[in-house]
Design a protein that fits this description.
Number of helices: 16
Structural class: alpha/beta
Shape: globular
Number of strands: 25
């Protein structure tokens, strides 16, 4: 049965279930400050902020918010890249009794308008450039009463030209400078606030691939629990600094970078946004020991000019999430870095991991499908595989992955019908299809909606992509189903090639044909320089379907 949890032996002497160490994420943050106030909390290029300074900056911001009408339960939206201001604003929102709303900095007018209106945010913290280009046309039609703008040039003096060339400070009418606002209230301490485990810590919006984005209500219980999972089972922050390779607005960045850095506590190294050469330089300069990011980001680093094994020499723990890893990619990472990349799997609605590969234990490969496992259920978490009728399937059978545990969100903000449909009884229906083997390892087959029906046969894009990955010239691939008069749907592949390599579509089709059943191999292949991706590194199959 699923709840026998045979994988617990992999966790060594860690308990199967464990209690929350803190009632809320703010108490978790304060405990880290009290442990060593002078230790570095945030490293941003040549600038650093100690835990005490972060505490004081967030105190000033929270005091200013309260003085300007912010009330407990109000929402503060952040429209930022990976900059220290993101963390300052998050902690300040909690100190003011509020909820942080995480917004993708790639959001344009329509998307920003929807997120601000749906969340009912009354405060917006935005980069000056983003506000000038997009925010100022959107904010007047929302509930936002206070706009604080800031610059990526703050909290550092290096201004690396690879990222910041030509950037200057911009002041916009109707806005207040973030640092000046804090300075006005520096030294003030907001009154004590009571945050319960089930209070919402932040809203994180789903990608909206099957409709409008939904605001997942990640509670303080969710945040503290998953931070503990990262520290205890993933070894995040236990050996030194954490490198923020994932976007902070994404659930991986929020938990796998920010929250666990507060809990451990450990320095969090930020580098504005992902630029391979800048990241490689930062790895050598700051020598972090842990990171988690999409395998596509790691592949970009391995293929960047000047990469050497030394760039990852300081790491004791490297994890990947957000996009599936093929066995080929796992082996390539090990060969290039000398480090084992571990798999983790979760969603916005599971506040990051629902399954994790225990630190030091390589994920097995399923001999039938060739898929690499995404780990075993996290502690205190029950993962089930269910059929379309909602009933549990036997071990080894393919069905929808359903998770129930302390990391599953309370629901979607203002959307009770969607909550009831996707979180029946508090368990999350993931929309991902997979299976569990008798040892408790979970394997993802694909997204339920991405299944291709070719002449009545099921074809899962992941399997075709894994076969394509075995070709030495293939860097990345994405497989989709396209209409076909005879077969209903047929398989089409989009492929990017490794630098210095060459291959023809016909050669790739022949490569797959030799290794797959006749109904599975792609009938057409399109070569692209780059595959479209989300900012978190997930390949956008929907854009390739046309």
């Amino acid at each position: 049965m699923y709840d026998e949890r045979p994988w617990l032996a992999l966790y060594g002497d860690q308990p199967a279930d464990y209690a929350l160490e803190f009632d809320n994420a703010l108490d978790m943050f304060r405990a880290g400050v009290a442990r060593d106030p002078s230790a570095v909390a945030l490293q941003y290029f040549d600038g650093s902020i100690t835990r005490q300074e972060l505490d004081e900056l967030s105190d000033g911001l929270a005091s200013g918010l309260l003085a300007n009408g912010f009330s407990p339960g109000d929402r503060l939206a952040v429209y930022l890249q990976n900059v220290p201001q993101f963390v300052i604003a998050m902690v300040a929102a909690w100190k003011a009794g509020g909820v942080m709303v995480s917004i993708n900095p790639m959001s344009r007018e329509r998307e920003l308008s929807y997120l601000l209106k749906d969340s009912g945010a009354t405060v917006l913290v935005a980069l000056e450039a983003l506000y000038g280009e997009i925010g100022r046309t959107v904010v007047p039609d929302t509930d936002v009463r206070l706009v604080l703008t800031t610059s990526e040039l703050e909290f550092q003096t290096r201004a690396d030209e690879r990222l910041f060339a030509g950037m200057t400070r911009q002041r916009h009418e109707g806005t207040t400078d973030f640092s000046e606002f804090i300075a006005e209230h520096r030294g003030e301490v907001p009154p004590p606030v009571e945050l319960a485990p089930d209070d919402v810590a932040f809203l994180t919006y789903t990608s909206g691939t099957t409709g409008v984005p939904k605001g997942a209500m990640n509670t303080h219980r969710n945040v503290v629990f998953t931070a503990q999972v990262y520290r205890d089972w993933v070894r995040a922050g236990r050996d030194g600094a954490i490198f923020g390779v994932a976007p902070l607005f994404h659930i991986t960045g929020l938990i796998g970078h920010i929250a666990v850095s507060m809990l451990a506590p450990a320095p969090l190294v930020l580098a504005y946004r992902f630029e391979p050469q800048v990241v490689l330089d930062a790895l050598l300069e700051h020598r972090p020991t842990f990171t988690i990011g999409a395998i596509t980001a790691f592949s970009a680093l391995l293929n960047a000019p000047g990469f050497t094994k030394e760039h990852f020499a300081s790491f004791t723990s490297v994890y990947s999430g957000g996009a599936a890893i093929s066995p080929t990619a796992e082996k390539a990472f090990l060969a290039a870095t000398g480090k084992q990349v571990h798999n983790a799997y979760g969603l916005t609605e599971t506040t990051s991991p629902m399954t994790v590969t225990p630190f030091g234990a390589p994920s097995p490969v399923d001999p039938t499908s060739g898929a690499l496992s995404v780990g075993v259920p996290a502690p205190s978490t029950i993962v089930r595989i269910q059929g379309d009728d909602g009933q549990d399937l036997p071990l080894g059978e393919v069905g929808e992955i359903v998770a129930d545990g302390p990391q599953v969100v309370a629901g979607y903000w203002g959307k009770p019908e969607e909550t009831a449909a996707n979180l029946p009884g508090g368990a999350l229906k993931s929309g991902d299809v997979g299976f569990m083997n008798p040892e408790g390892w979970v394997f993802i087959v694909d997204r339920k909606k991405d299944m291709i029906n070719a002449s009545g046969y099921k074809v899962w894009p992941r399997e075709v992509e894994d076969v394509l990955a075995e070709h030495p010239a293939v860097r990345e691939s994405a497989v989709v189903g396209v209409p076909d008069e005879k077969r209903g749907e047929t398989v089409k592949a989009f492929v990017s090639v490794k630098p210095g390599s060459s291959v023809t579509p016909e050669e790739l089709i022949a490569h797959c044909k030799q290794r797959m059943a006749a109904y599975k191999y792609p009938r057409s292949v399109v070569l692209l320089d780059e595959l479209p991706k989300t900012v978190t590194g997930k390949i956008l199959r929907r854009e390739l379907r046309g």
